[in-house]
User: Fold Vitamin D3 receptor B from Gouania willdenowi.
Amino acid sequence: TLTPNSWQSSDVALKVPQGCFSILTWPLCLVMEPTVVSTSTEAPDEFDRNAPRICGVCGDKATGFHFNAMTCEGCKGFFRRSMKRKAAFTCPFNGSCTITKDNRRHCQACRLKRCVDIGMMKEFILTDEEVQRKKDLIQRRKDEEAQREADREARRPRLTDEQSHVITTLVEAHHKTFDDSYSDFCRFRPPVRDGPVTRSASRAASLHSLSDASSDSFSHSPESLDAKMNFNNLLMMYQEQGSSPDSSEEEASSYSMLPHLADLVSYSIQKVIGFSKMIPGFRYLTAEDQIALLKSSAIEVIMLRSNQSFNLEDMSWSCGAPDFKYQISDVTKAGHTLELLEPLVKFQVGLKKLNLHEEEHVLLMAICLLSPDRPGVQDHARIEALQDRLSETLQAYIRLHHPGGRLLYAKMIQKLADLRSLNEEHSKQYRSLSFQPEHSMQLTPLVLEVFGSEVS
Ligand SMILES: [Zn+2]
Ligand SMILES: [Zn+2]
Assistant:
């Protein structure tokens, strides 16, 4: 059969390849080896790249191997026509014309003789039937490729109408329940930051000036060593402080930010309830299940939604007016400790860095709300089905619309796991706060109801 080696002798254009070419067998190669389908075979790359490609018949610029010899297009056509017509030419001269590019039309006899001399073979010319077969084969390949492309297209993940509807609904629900201007915040009891400075507040504040000092490196890479050291410093300072025996008594009277933040949390709970009512399927759950889901997930959804105002540059939640810019130290002045705030800030940084699309952000909140494994849930299967539908929508959305989001879904699910432990720590701290009447009286009825431990 034809192999590149056949062509690799030095007088390549003049040599007839070894072996017998049967007109009956060689067309099989057409089917078996696509590279041989064309009768005009390009010379293999590896041999004599720089050798001039000259027509062995007339010396014109050659275009490749035609019928077994390197020739120009003109001599290729001449040979084919001559063979098909079974033409018999006679030399008008003495039978030994030198064929050149310019005179090649003058003597067909000597041109054809030259063709045969350099190895051109009529067996390499396709019959009409073979030409048709070759065309059919090429067409069949094209059709197959088109079919494969159509199959690939059909397998591409796409959003169903229902999934698109879910996303649109959730984005709308979020817009209706999250006010970018934070204009309602001025109706809360006002923030008080200059009250009696407690140890933990002052330490948190000093931690803040620390992070301010390194804010340059922070903004470049929030997960730099600097940032981690700050967290560790914070944590250590807190632990030192927490271990001092007289601190708790001193703390007790000084939660100056508690009224404002209690109102903020209460307001956020209302908004989370509004959002959840608009999650497709949520309203059809029993009232008991709706309450069970909300009670256990409200704080997680609040942490998720607060990421929208979280600011990587100074690790604060910035909600419009300077008064509504919340630092870690502000939250400690509402009775929470760094045991919650340190992982919470880490969580906010990590979530922010996922650069979620709004569609992904709202889906994550809905998935969080519809977790079937919450305490007190009755219709486990129904909630799981709703959550599965949301998860599938999220995965399809990421595949389709989030370039480079191959690992994003897994990272988002990890954030849900992080939220569980934040929730646990929050409950712990809320419980100890609410056991102190002078603090629990600052909370709102909604906060008391939602975060309260009694199962309804
Ligand atoms: Zn030629
Ligand atoms: Zn001649």
